[in-house]
Amino acid sequence: MDVLLFGIPAVVAIIGAIAMLLSRNAVHSALYLLLNFAAISVLYLLLQAPFLFATQLIVYAGAIIVLFLFVVMLLGAERDEDTPHANPWQNRGALVGGVLLLVELCLLYVYNPGTIPVAVDMDNAFAAPAEVAKALFTTHLLPFEIASFVLLTALIGVVVLHQRRS
Amino acid sequence: MTWIDILILLVRCLVLALAAATLFAYFTLFERRLLAKFQHRVGPNRAGYIPLPGGKKLFGGWLQPAADAVKLFLKEDVVPAMADKWVYIMAPGFAVVPALIIWVAIPLGTWPDGLGGNWLHYAPMDVGVLYLLAVTSIGVYGIAVAGWASNNKYSMIGGVRASAQVISYELALGLAILAVVMQNSTFRTEEIVISQGTMWNIVPQFLGFIIFLVASTAEVVRSPFDLVEAEQELVGGYNTEYGSMKFALFFMSEYIKLIAMNAIAVTLFLGGGNFPGIDTLVAAIKTSNGDTIAYAVQGLLTLGAFLLKTTALSFLSVWVRASVPRVRYDQLMHLGWKILLPMGLFNVVLTAVFGVVFPADSIIAKVIMGIVGLLVVVIVSATATPKHAKRGVTMVNTPAGN
Fold first, then answer.
1. What mean pLDDT is predicted for residues B320-330?
2. Per the structure, how many domains does chain A have?
């Protein structure tokens, strides 16, 4: 049962990611990415992190991919142009990357991850909304504030650009 | 979890889905009859009635939804030649699934099963409110993808409009809900319902309630924010190329989403299934007839109260549809970004200040908050008009939102 619960979303996530890369239509890619994100949110749920599950759905599935779709549909740019790859090294680079990934997987298999100590002590409440909030507003306050500052900068940038046009 | 538990769960889910579909069917009849009354017409009153002596007819039209369903089932199911076939076929599913799964996080009443659970609340989770937001924001895919896959310029414009509109109004909706979460200091929907025992959230969160009503109407792209399927400009918008049951699924998802939004408003602002005196009544039955009967009575009464409140809000939706003309696209964006969003931010600040300054359960503080909210609503609706409304038709060539 456990293996099944983990296996289905994991396989769906991998299929979604691969199909996203291979599909030649930008809207199909966005939909496969949505599938991937949804499967990953289920994995968060299985890891007892309901807050991450909800934010993954709201932020990535609910906002970012909608924006992707919006831009692609607005520009009518969903068709892939049949031009050869601009960078001749791209294929060879991808090959090297794939080999590296395979080596890494083999190493993981050799150093059995079961023997590595777990990073966090997982009980039922370790990723509850209250705990996440506590961590964000006490231990990790500075990164949190920096992130919000970056977002604020983007917001002000939008206002400035808008003003200049009119 | 044994197989019996899984079986019970499946049966409960089936019941919920069928109940939602039935609600949809009878909401269409409710809406058509009411719209007819608002416009001095009669409305569908022929299909099915109970004959009374003296030639009178009772409940005229109660079989109309069944007749509509049969008609839609029997229509020819066409896939346009130039459509993106698989996406075109999947789009109605994208639309219906969020509309159905949103119901699991809403406590439809209180029917304790004796083991600490609640038969009428499918999935009590500690991120209940966030789940509601997440599922609402996913609901737009059905429309956007259908518009794209139809390969039709009108459908496409409908889909593009839908995605822009939903992203814009999600913010105001989220802020209105955030203020409720701050007021009750919990993400759990059932705890929000319980903490409204002394006073419904609509009093302290009056401003939030108004924002929620407007934003949720826009979020489910319903009149007066139905630019997505504006008949005069876009034929039928995103569902122009859909027929038969595929069209029916879009229709269904739209209405179930509307009812679900009203149900969420009832949960967050109108005290869910609770009403004054229910606790005393249940305690009295418990001593005289035992736990099981008391729980059943409590379940039925709270479910009835919940449905009654939802129907009241649904009546409001129909009323708005009958009375308010459709907004222009620039007005839509203006309202979302420049009026509702600042109001929502103000409401969050107001809730935070009152939460810090006054003790948590102070009735007076809640009433003062409600009065401040009322004042803000009155002032904003009296002063805020779209810039272009004063200039009339000259706005035609200016880009939206300036």
1. 85
2. 1
Which of A61, A70, A129 is opposite residue B138, by nearest beta carbon?
Answer: A61
Nearest CA in chain A to B188: A129
Q: Which two tokens stand for residue B225?
A: 């924010």
Cβ contact A63–B147 (<8 Å): no
Residues of B in contact with A69 (CB under 8 A): 141, 144-145, 148, 163
- The answer to whether residue A36 sits within a structural domain is yes
Radius of gyration in angstroms for the set of CA atoms belonging to chain A, rounded to a whole number: 21
From chain B, pick out residues whose CB is under 8 angstroms from the CB of A73: 144, 147-148, 156, 159-160, 163
User: How much is the pTM?
Assistant: 0.83
Quick one: pLDDT at residue B396? Answer: 45
B237, with CB counted inside 10 A (0-12, 13-18, 19+), is buried
In the structure encoding, which two tokens stand for residue A11, read together? 């396989």
In a domain, A102, yes or no: no
CB contact under 8 A, B127 and A62: no
User: How far A158 CA sits from the closest chain B CA (Å)?
Assistant: 13
For residue A76, give its domain range: 1-80
Contact criterion met (CB < 8 Å) for A34 and B135: no
Residue A152 lies in a domain: no
Rounded distance, CA B250 to CA B94, Å? Answer: 9
Q: Specify the long-range contacts of residues A109-116, CB closer than 8 Å, at least 24 apart.
A: none
pLDDT per residue as tens digits for the range A110-127: 776 666 666 666 666 667
B34-70 tens-digit pLDDT = 888 888 888 787 777 777 777 677 777 788 888 888 8
Q: Is the pLDDT of residue B262 over 80?
A: yes
Tokens for B110, please give them. 């209180």
Which of B133, B144, B163 lies closest to A58 in CB terms? B133
Does the residue A133 lie in any domain?
no
Query: Per the structure block, which two tokens stand in for B157?
Result: 């414009």
| Distance of alpha carbon B222 from alpha carbon A24, whole angstroms | 35
Separation between Cα atoms, residue B182 and residue A33, nearest integer Å: 33
- Asked if the Cβ–Cβ distance from A50 to B125 is below 8 Å, we say yes
CATH, residue A5:
1.20.120.1200
Q: Categorize the per-residue pLDDT at B32 as very low, low, confident or very high, splitting at 50, 70 and 90.
A: confident
Contact between A63 and B87 using a beta-carbon 8 Å cutoff: no
* Sign of the alpha-carbon torsion through B316, B318, B323, B326: positive
User: Which residues have CB under 8 Å from B47's CB, separation 6+?
Assistant: B61, B62, B63, B64, B66, B67
The nearest alpha carbon in chain B to A166 belongs to B402
